[in-house]
Amino acid sequence: MSQLSSRHLLGIKDLTPADIQLILETAENFKEVINRPIKKVPSLRDITIANIFFENSTRTRLSFELAEKRLSADVVNFSSSNSSVKKGETLVDTVNNILSMKVDMVVMRHSSPGAPHFLARNVKANIVNAGDGTHEHPTQALLDAFSMREKLGDLQGKKIAIIGDILHSRVALSNIFCLQKLGAEVMVCGPITLLPKHIQSLGVKVELDVRKALAWCDVANVLRIQLERQQIKYFPSLREYSLYYGVNKKMLEELDREIVVMHPGPINRGVELASDVADSDHAIILQQVENGVAVRMAVLYLLAAVKA
C-alpha cells in the first residue's frame, strides 16, 4: 500500500494499521532528509498549507511549520487571537475565506472536540487535526510510536504505561488507539480522579500505583497535569501529586531493568517528572521533538497525494 485510506488525518481511530505503518515508514525516509546538510525537498512545491490555531501551541505549531517548509510548501499562519473570529465569524466562514485564497491543506488546532471532523465535512481541503480539545492529537501519537520503534524495534507485545492526567489528555487517547493498532499492551496510571470512568472499555489495564506501573512497563509516557483544563480540584495540591505520582530517578533505580521515559511536553518539572529523570539517559524527550518534524512531513506528503 502506498496511499493512505483517507484524505484527512482527523484521529488515529480512523486510521488502519496499514496507514500507521505507511506513515512511520515514510517518516524514516524524511528523518534521513532532515539530517542532511540541505534539509529541503521539493515534494510539496505547488501546495499551500494554512496553519489555523485556535489554541496556544509552541512545539506542534513550530513542528508543522518546519515540516511544511522542509517540503517546500507555501505556508500561511493564522492565529485566532487577532482575527475576525473575535468579531463573531463562524469557523466554516473563517476557513472558507482562507481557502478562497487557494489553500490546499489546513492544519487545525481547536479547543472543541470534533472541530476538525466538522470542518472536513464542510470545506474542500485536506484537514489535519493538530489537537481537538481533550479528544485526539494524532500526530503526537504517531511521533511517540515512531520514537518508541526507534528505541525498541517492533512494538508488538511491548508494554507501554501512560502515566498522569489521562482525563484531560488528547495525547493519551490517540496513543492508546495507535499503540493497540501496532500490537502493544497499554496501561494507564494516575489518581482515580484523573482517569476517565469507562477507560477499561478501551482494552487498557488500569493501575493506581505508579511504582507498579513502572515495574510493568517497557516505556513510561508521562503526561502533563493540565491545570488549564481543570475547572475543579482533582487532587489536593501539586506537591501531593508529585509525592504520589511524580516519576523520579530513585524510582527508576529501584527497577530491575532500564525503561524508556517519554513526555509530550511541555514538562512541569518537579511535578509529573523530576529534572533528574527528564535530563537522564532514560528520557527520549528531545528525540520525540526531532521525530515530530519527520512524522509531520510524512503525514503532509501522504495526504497531498490523496485527492477528493
Automatic annotation (TrEMBL):
Carbamoyl phosphate binds at residues 59-60, 109, 137, 140, 265-266. SUPFAM superfamilies: Aspartate/ornithine carbamoyltransferase. It is an enzyme of class 2 (transferase). It catalyses: carbamoyl phosphate + L-aspartate = N-carbamoyl-L-aspartate + phosphate + H(+). Pathway: Pyrimidine metabolism; UMP biosynthesis via de novo pathway; (S)-dihydroorotate from bicarbonate: step 2/3. Its EC number is 2.1.3.2. L-aspartate binds at residues 87, 170, 224. Keywords: Pyrimidine biosynthesis, Transferase. The keyword Electron transport does not apply. NCBIfam families: asp_carb_tr, PRK00856.1. This is Aspartate carbamoyltransferase. It comes from Algoriphagus limi. The lineage of its organism: Bacteria, Pseudomonadati, Bacteroidota, Cytophagia, Cytophagales. The gene is pyrB.
